[in-house]
Write a structure and sequence with these properties.
single chain, about 400 residues, mainly alpha, 14 helices, flat
């Protein structure tokens, strides 16, 4: 009990700290009468002890006279001997290696090693010969020496500075020999393009694009775009020719040549033929499916801004109907001119008035009638027209 009410020394034990944390986390419920702090102090005042213990304080003389090491009876300072500490001793162990006898290789391993060395020597010689041949060819093209000049070959440099010196030497010799006198654009201003001054294109990107453009290369999506354009133009051209022939045949059979001038562009553009559409439907669907497969491939590689929609058969047909109106009108005018020319030939081959019955052109008109009759036969054969 004597340590139960000790004065607080400013430190807190671990048990008290844990208990305080638990109490702060989970507040106990208040029970009984709630009293103030003053009432609690009056009922149970804290005990006060008058005895205070202080630690003993030593003087500096006591501390100075206290020996650092325990004293040994009868020991004098001159009896002390030096002993090195344990950490200063060397921990290196020397091995006793016996001298080995002459190394012996098996015949198989020795032969394999010599073969490998011979192959390496042959490869080095071949590489040196190719290098000398390449340098000789380059010198001959630049006109620096001919085949009779056999100057010693120069060893390739090893450092970057040596390579720079070699390159500068070659360029200077080529310039002195006039190798750059016939370069295209020499003495003229350098051609500039608008992309070179574009602040949104980096310099390295511009140079890379120019190299790709000069070499004729293109990104994969551009090549697919060219293929798609070619396939689309081919399909539309085939569709246009097919509908033009069909429309001209329909107008020729259903209307006479006299009604051709009364046709308007709007009337021809509104013409439709369900029979032709049903007959060509399988071809149209197959061609549209191939075009859409190319579009799908193109959209998978192309940027978002240049992607294309899919093709629809009805949309393509409506576009063909509108675009072919002028071509159909032109074809009908040509048909009218051909019929007028045929009528002129027939009028020239009419018999002489006053002669009854069929007249033989050979007896009535002679050579002229024969020529007209031959032209008429050829005309019927190639145009497929019936009797006028």
């Amino acid at each position: 009990m004597e340590h139960h009410h000790e004065n607080w020394s400013g430190e807190e034990s671990v048990q008290d700290t844990v208990l305080r944390m638990l109490v702060d986390k989970y507040k106990p419920l208040r029970t009984g009468i709630v009293r103030t702090a003053d009432e609690k102090l009056k009922d149970a005042p804290p005990p006060i002890t008058s005895e205070t213990t202080y630690p003993s304080v030593r003087t500096w003389k006591e501390i100075a006279n206290e020996p650092l090491l325990p004293a040994i009876e009868g020991h004098k300072p001159w009896h002390t001997t030096f002993r090195p500490p344990s950490h200063t001793s060397a921990s290196i162990k020397f091995g006793n290696i016996k001298p080995s006898s002459t190394r012996s290789f098996s015949p198989l391993t020795d032969e394999r090693t010599r073969r490998t060395e011979r192959e390496l020597i042959k490869r080095k010689e071949l590489a040196n010969r190719l290098t000398r041949a390449r340098e000789s060819t380059l010198d001959y093209r630049l006109g620096l020496r001919d085949g009779r000049d056999r100057r010693p070959t120069r060893v390739n440099p090893v450092t970057l500075k040596g390579w720079q010196s070699l390159v500068e030497d070659r360029i200077e010799k080529a310039r002195m020999a006039g190798a750059f006198d016939k370069v295209s654009g020499r003495g003229q201003p350098i051609a500039r393009v608008s992309e070179e001054r574009n602040p949104f294109i980096a310099r390295e990107e511009f140079l890379m694009n120019r190299i790709v453009q000069r070499s004729g290369a293109a990104p994969p999506w551009v090549e697919v775009q060219i293929e798609l354009e070619s396939a689309t133009n081919s399909f539309r051209e085939t569709l246009r020719q097919s509908w033009t022939r069909r429309a001209v045949r329909m107008l020729t059979v259903s209307q006479s040549a006299a009604t051709v001038p009364s046709l308007s562009l709007a009337t021809v553009a509104t013409m439709r033929d369900r029979e032709w559409e049903n007959r060509e439907c399988s071809y149209h669907n197959t061609a549209i499916a191939e075009l859409n497969s190319l579009v799908r491939k193109y959209n998978a590689m192309a940027p978002y801004a240049v992607r294309r929609p899919y093709y629809v058969r009805e949309v393509e047909l409506e576009k063909v109907y509108e675009d072919c109106a002028e071509e159909i009108m032109r074809a009908m005018r040509e048909k009218k001119e051909e019929k007028s020319g045929y009528s002129m030939f027939i009028s020239m081959a009419k018999p002489v008035p006053g002669v009854d019955g069929p007249v033989d052109p050979a007896s009535s008109f002679g050579l002229r009638a024969l020529i007209l009759q031959w032209i008429e036969r050829l005309w019927r054969k190639f145009t497929g027209l019936g009797q006028p």
